[in-house]
Design brief:
By secondary structure, the protein is α/β, with parallel strands linked by helices. The chain has 3 domains: 213 residues, Rossmann fold (3-Layer(aba) Sandwich); 55 residues, no CATH class; 210 residues, Endonuclease Chain A (Endonuclease, Chain A). It has a 9-stranded mixed beta sheet, with helices on both faces. A 7-stranded parallel beta sheet has the order 3-4-2-1-5-6-7. Strand 13 and strand 14 form a beta hairpin. The longest helix is centred in the last third of the chain and has 21 residues. The relative contact order is 0.09.
Amino acid sequence: MQIPNSLLKAIREQKVIPFIGAGLSSSIKDREGARIFPSWPELLNSSAERLVGEGKSDDANLVTSLVRKNKLVEAATNADQYLGRVQWLEFLKETFDRTCDHADPATLGLLYQVWTLGSNLVMTTNYDRSLQWACPDQADFRVWDIEAQAEQLSAIRNGRVSRPTVWHLHGQIDNVSNLVLTSSDYAGLYGNPGKTPSKYKAAIDSLKTLLKSHKFLFLGFSLKDEVFLRQVVAVNKTYKGAAAQHYAFLPPRDADSANLDDSGIQALHYDDHSDLPDLLSSLAVEALRSPPVNVPVSRYIVDKREGLYLFGGRGDAFFKLYDDALRAIDRQLDIFSLKLGRFRREHEGTLIQAATHAKIRIALLDPRFPLPDGQGNLASIREKEEKAQEGAIRRDVAEWVDLFARYRQKVAAGEITEGQENGLDIRLYNILPTVNLFAVDQSLFVGPYLLNVEDRDTPTFLLRSEAPGRTSMGDTMFNVYKRHFDAVWNDAETRDIADVSDNEVSAWKAGRSFGPVAS
């Protein structure tokens, strides 16, 4: 499938708003491989099963009959009526009120890619929180319910939003009584033509303005929602075809299902669902060619085929993947770093637990490592370069000595049985560190140490050695960095942390040097 040049140009100009449908949410799976969120028909058939459980088989049969005829809004209306409002809302809450912990992070890839398309505003008719889970800037993330008058007015006035924002046009699960599913819900939002106006005039006016000024890119959206489609058609007719051109990535099964006449939507049909990540990666490349105005360091680009993820900085998206990978350790974890203070504080329990079934190797800077000609030691130099508190590296390494002692106590007490394939080893290296490396099973995070650049602002790669049947770039780079780690680990000057003396630990905890250039 060829991506139109007009769409690529709009991406570069930051004039594209992703509009996400149920197809992307339904691609999310739990760690056992089961889908977390249902499709529309699955949701309504599940409501019919609940009706059967309430002894209302005839009502259930009517709902399933309407689903088979693809009359989904009518089916939802009947399910609401027959279950009763309280049970209907409870049913919806149980279905969509999921947290990120329910999801296998590996299945969030498409949603991560949505945030690489250059727009801080993402629109959706979904009710769940999955777009928030994938957002790279969790600290600045914002949610709009159906209507957020001040924010929507600002977006129209300025032509953009300044913070990553998801607009739940049909409501979101934290306000379950406000969800748009039934006939009366749709009438409340969109109004009845020639009869009653919308209860959410500001929201509908904002939608129509954005449809005129921006290009929408529909993803996971079958465009069978006739009520919503009427809004698109109305805007296009009002401006006699001069409104913005919109685009929809659709799978082959939807090739003839959507009536797009007069909508101004160009259907772009891909051959297979596995093509979608590459298509979004191509758009992300164009987004990176946008003028670099206030570009957040947490922007990132993904090429899953090559096993490459490039992060502009170590923001929330990076640490989410980092933490998820750590929790899922299967066989091996290798870390090459300066001190790992945050990591130790947050993950000691996870490390000790992982050591019961996986091999954990951690290489840290040796605080006694001297520089030539009496210039001091590397720990002190690095602290100055990072503008860290004097003695910070030494104190953190001393804490790792204590952690290792606690681990050895568990081994001695029989709580952990070490073997060839599991256990925790920590060594202190005597080389100039150039990269920070974190390799868990087939995923490897690596980034440079940079002068006067904070950790959060450091560009970082995630390399995945998982491309089946061929050698990917991620595969090749993964192996290069693993060889680097092994060379450090086996270097003659590298020593076991168990060999650190009590005097060294005491000095380091006080923030003092100990050894050839003690001060």
